[in-house]
């Protein structure tokens, strides 16, 4: 049966009316309740200022693929202006769970002795983008609730620092002993720094725990941590995790540490106390049974112990190709290798690992790279690599396409006399536009980032008109 045109228009208008845009101000006494009551398609825009909570702040969202729930702060001249502060001790700043939701442009912090920053319960299709989390007493961002499953999380451009003197890390994904799993998620362009006052053995930059799988950890910057920069445990054979394009510097332990089920490529690791890249027996599903590890096109320098630490490995699922190991202490602390794939690795100091063919390594001097670890114009790394291995890398740390036949060894592909990309440093990474990726700037359109509205906790007449026009024109 055909609907009359006027009835169809009316039903369309009713559908539009189902979602609301809330303009909130720090003076709103009901701002927490407003956010807690949001339903599919709702948007909350928080004006500049400090929004305080004094107790549990928990959200459970049920958005949908076409109507996500969105909470946004305000940005003025590139600076975040909206702060959510937890004033209660022994509380997380925010707890959130659900599906199809996102947080953007917000700062989370503690007044004194709160616990975690953003604590995520079971969630799917959730985005956390352009956030700052600081001065917590425990981990800044954690998705680690027992028995939970996390699917399609996006954590992008989140800066975390000063996470306190307790059991704190920057980011934790998944649970120990496979008690929860994070999978098919993107952890990219984040900046973790100055996590130094933690308890012993804590202070990791990014942790992906056992049983979590098919996650991408790329283009993050980790600087000055009390433990490993990036630490991944066994994926339990469910799907390899990718660690790509990260810069890890000044850690008091290993730079990048993995157990099994990991592809580690195009990373720069420098100035770490222990090993630059290490394969560890910690939390393997089966003791001393390693599987599926690729270490390809990394640049490692200034390692306190050695650039690469490997146990005895056997089989072609273990690949070490086109890396630049540039420390003057030692390149390798490596057990006997049997049938593992080693090709075209450069090193400065050390001896040939047992079981590795001499043709798999070539010795260089430390000056093959400049201060930014980009190759000099006469570097022996240029055109010294190979593509003769499974799944060769087609771009570099910056996002520059690699040579189709003889790529540069290490994280960078040499193309110009100076580094065409952003040097590694204490800031969020900005890859070149050629970097093969999804949109780094995906953000729901609300039609107004200014936060201008009535300030009554929901739509005033003027704000309603503005919202409807934005929704109709979007």
From TrEMBL:
Residues 416-461 are annotated as: Disordered. Keywords: Signal. It comes from the Eukaryota. Residues 416-429 have a biased composition (Polar residues). Residues 112-267 form the Right handed beta helix domain. The keyword Signal applies. The keyword Calcium does not apply. InterPro entries: Beta_helix, PbH1, Pectin_lyas_fold, Pectin_lyase_fold/virulence. Residues 1-19 form the signal peptide. This is Chondroitinase B. It comes from Acanthamoeba castellanii (strain ATCC 30010 / Neff). The lineage of its organism: Eukaryota, Amoebozoa, Discosea, Longamoebia, Centramoebida.
């Amino acid at each position: 049966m055909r609907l009359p045109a006027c009835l169809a228009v009316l039903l369309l208008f009713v559908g539009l009316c189902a979602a609301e845009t809330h303009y909130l101000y720090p003076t709103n006494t009901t701002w927490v309740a407003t956010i807690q009551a949001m339903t599919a398609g709702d948007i909350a825009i928080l004006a500049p200022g400090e929004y305080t909570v004094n107790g549990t702040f928990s959200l459970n969202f049920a958005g949908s693929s076409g109507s996500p729930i969105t909470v946004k702060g305000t940005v003025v001249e590139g600076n975040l202006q909206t702060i959510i502060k937890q004033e209660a001790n022994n509380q997380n700043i925010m707890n959130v769970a659900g599906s199809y939701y996102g947080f953007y442009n917000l700062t989370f912090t503690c007044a004194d002795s709160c616990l975690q920053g953003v604590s995520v319960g079971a969630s799917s299709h959730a985005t956390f983008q352009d956030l700052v989390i600081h001065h917590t007493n425990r981990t800044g961002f954690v998705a680690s609730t027992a028995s939970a499953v996390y699917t399609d999380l996006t954590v992008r451009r989140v800066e975390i620092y000063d996470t306190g003197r307790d059991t704190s890390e920057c980011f934790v994904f998944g649970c120990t002993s496979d008690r929860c799993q994070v999978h098919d998620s993107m952890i990219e362009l984040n900046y973790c720094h100055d996590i130094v006052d933690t308890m012993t053995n804590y202070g990791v930059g990014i942790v992906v725990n056992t049983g979590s799988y098919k996650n991408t950890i790329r283009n993050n910057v980790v600087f000055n941590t009390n433990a490993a920069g990036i630490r991944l445990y066994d994926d339990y054979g469910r799907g390899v995790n990718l660690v790509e394009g990260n810069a890890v510097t000044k850690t008091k332990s290993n730079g990048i540490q993995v157990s099994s089920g990991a592809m580690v490529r195009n990373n720069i690791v420098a100035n770490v106390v222990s090993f630059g890249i290490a394969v560890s027996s910690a939390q393997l599903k089966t003791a001393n049974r390693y599987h599926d590890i690729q270490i390809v096109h990394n640049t490692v320098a200034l390692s306190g112990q050695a650039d690469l630490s490997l146990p005895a490995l056997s089989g072609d699922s273990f690949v070490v190709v086109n890396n630049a190991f540039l420390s003057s202490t030692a390149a390798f602390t490596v057990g006997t290798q049997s049938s593992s794939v080693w090709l075209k690795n450069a090193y400065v100091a050390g001896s040939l690992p047992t079981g590795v063919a001499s043709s798999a390594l070539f010795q260089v001097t430390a000056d093959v790279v400049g201060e930014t670890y980009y190759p000099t114009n006469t570097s022996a790394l240029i055109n010294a690599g190979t593509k003769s291995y499974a799944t060769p890398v087609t771009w570099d740390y910056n996002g520059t396409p690699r040579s189709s036949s003889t790529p540069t060894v290490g994280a960078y592909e040499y193309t110009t006399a100076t580094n065409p990309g952003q040097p590694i440093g204490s800031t969020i990474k900005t890859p070149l536009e050629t970097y093969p990726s999804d949109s780094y700037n995906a953000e729901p359109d609300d039609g107004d980032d200014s936060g201008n509205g009535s300030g009554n906790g929901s739509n005033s007449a003027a704000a309603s008109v503005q919202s409807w026009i934005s929704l109709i024109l979007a």
